[in-house]
């Protein structure tokens, strides 16, 4: 219970800061009042849905996610250049494939992160989420590299579920 | 005075390089969407625009705007695009797959017929 | 200010990209091509708006870009949902129920 309260407080603070930043007015009777009302409404509805937990308020893992995103950014950069080379080569020469990749164990958040990372990396798109894994469409055979997928899955799980533990 | 000038110049140069590269990626993604043979391959071309093109342009603009609320808003926009684009892409791909749209799975080589070939 | 020219060039390139996407939107053989094109067009509109805002020094346009990005995402999901269930009133739990009853092959 105390944990839920902590998440609620953090979420309230983040929403309030977001409102202040987006409105750009630190104190203006009507606008700040509307902001306070919106924050209270949002918190009330989130609590009523029973959604205030570590998944909605992932601030404990934000540092790990930041490191993961940096690594993912590098991967995205490399994959982008490959895709652009393939798509713009004068002789279009691709062999699309669909592969199945098993999912390493992990929470829902870890698997969502994994699937979204695959989609975010150009050249591979998660087409379908099945029981034991993902169905992935790859632009070319060279992108359907099972080892790379498994490595990405390990990193995603480590980022979402905490450490190498 | 002069140090500030050089910092400004460096920021401007970095910003210009990032934005122009990003714009090239955006154009490449758009061209890819026209050239590639079927829906599933076009998804990948759209991804080029959504990820690298968009983020590079937004980061370049952040360098240009200095420390202000505009920078914060741009950062939020970048984060938002980064988080929603895979969801939208996956939703589109999944809907097409569920509706029975079959992907091309053999080697695609011929030079003709850029627009046809979507195995619907 | 030479940066304004860079902004101008970038805005022009994004606009050319938008025109190309528009061609795909008109040609696109399947519905999903068009949905994808609309989504990509929206992303490019956001980029164009942002660059435009910096070019003319009008920060308010960035707020519009933020809103547009939100709308674009929701619109894509809503269009897909509509064409899958032919209705927007299907609640999430009902969707799960229907999938369980139909055994995967809906639409």
Describe what you observe in this structure.
The complex is a heterotrimer of chains A (165), B (120) and C (107). Chain A is mainly α and 165 residues long. Chain A folds into 2 domains: 47 residues, no CATH class; 100 residues, no CATH class. Chain A is built from 5 helices and 3 strands; from the N terminus they run αααβαββα. The longest helix of chain A is centred in the middle third of the chain and has 27 residues. The radius of gyration of chain A is 21 Å and the shape is elongated. Chain A starts with a helix and ends with a helix. Chain B is mostly helical and 120 residues long. The N and C termini of chain B lie far apart (64 Å). Chain C has one domain. Chain C is built from 4 helices and no strands. In chain C, α1 packs antiparallel against α2 and α2 packs antiparallel against α3. At the B-C interface, α1, α2 and α3 of B face α1, α2 and α3 of C.
Assembly context of the chains: heterotrimer
**N- and C-termini, Cα separation of chain B:** 64 Å
Q: Please state the overall shape of chain B, judged from the principal axes of the Cα atoms.
A: elongated
Beta-strand portion of chain C reads under 5%
Proportion of residues in β-strands of chain B: under 5%
End-to-end Cα distance of chain C, whole Å, is: 55 Å
How many separate domains make up the residues of chain C?
A: 1
Helix content of chain B: over 70%
Low-pLDDT stretches of chain B: 112-120
The run of helices and strands of chain C is HHHH
How many DSSP E strands of chain B?
A: 0
Helix content range of the residues of chain C, please? Answer: over 70%
Largest interface: B-C, 53 and 47 residues
Q: Work out the helix count of chain C.
A: 4
- What average pLDDT do the residues of chain C reach? 83
**Unreliable segments of chain C (pLDDT under 50, ≥5 consecutive)?**
none
Shape label of chain C: elongated
Number of domains of chain B: 1
